[in-house]
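step: validate -> pass
step: tokenize input -> pass
step: predict -> running
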Amino acid sequence: MHSFVARQAILDEQGNPLGYELLFRTSLENRFPNIDAEQATRRLMAEQFLSQKIEELVGNALCFVNFPDSLLRQGLAESFRQPQLVIEVLESAIPDQALLEHVKSLKELGIKVALDDYIPSPEWEMFFPYADFIKLDLRAMSMADCSRLIRHCQKYPQLRFIAEKVETQQEYKAAQEAGFEFFQGYYFQQPKVVSRRILTTSEMTAFELLSVVNSKEVDFNKLAHLFSSDLSLTYNLLRYVNSLHAGSRQQRIDNLRGALVYLGHQQLKRFTALVITSYISKDKGLELQRLPMLRAKWCELLAEKICPELQEEAFICGLFSLLGVLLERPMAEILEHIALAEPVRQALLERKGQLGFLLSLMHDYEQANWEKLQLRLDFIKLSEESCSQCYQEAVLWSQQLADAE
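step: predict -> pass
step: emit ->
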């Protein structure tokens, strides 16, 4: 699925970004959706901070996020110990002792705090020692009042002021003279909507599962917990095990622990790789759903002929060769989250090694680059007929797998 977020830069006097204010969106349309503010903040935090790296969105800059009073009192902000996060306490919040304790807690955790759209009020002064930024709306306060407040707060050396809604060069110059260090508004940049492909819950579970099964020693307790928390995952596991078990006189396997033990480490790796690709491709076209399976078997069959010791790795390599297309992200970013054998990693990232050679061979076959293909086949002393036979077997296998779903 895709997440949408609008970001507006907060700049210093040299035009360098201090950070970006992040604004929740549900599409490329640049307006706040018709949902509750609390829900918007929850979704923004989950989609931008939990599902992916925030650095991919803002680099090393800060992220300013509006937090409604209710979420602050529930302690949601304390759950996100992100050094780049700045919690914006809204002007609608109630400045009582309970809220102050939550702000103190945020500061103890190293989380920055900004008072948003601040209007001078004695009740808020007790927050000043714990705030990092105060944002003043130039449409709500005169420049003279802004200047007086900035001078008044010089006894709080950590406090820095951000001028909001700077819309003209004259306002920018006046804000500088008033003592503002940072500036935000249409004069510099309108909010820009950014769309990012994020992992669904099922995809994230599959990636976590893959990490566990690729460990040198499998933690079967953690493995069982991951499976038991995902009904469809357990269902698919039992179906997969019994497809391998077909024809055996042994009793049908119908429980999670028995299935995990029966599979063993190598088959668990293969099953997990199949699952993760299936989850990721389920919303894609039919061809993109089947092609990773086809490539997996094809690569395995080719490896059987030229590097049989790498058959298991070849299967994973072919299966994951389309991850970049499916997740719409660079392969290097994706592989940061997956524990893979080094030959597989080198093949996927750089087309190096024997597996990289096989991926290139399959690409030439798919793209009908016959001259290059023949050179590769000659190099590994494999006939065109053998290569085509491997392809046809892979097509049949992937079709049977699709029909069984």
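step: describe -> The mean pLDDT is 83.
step: cleanup -> pass
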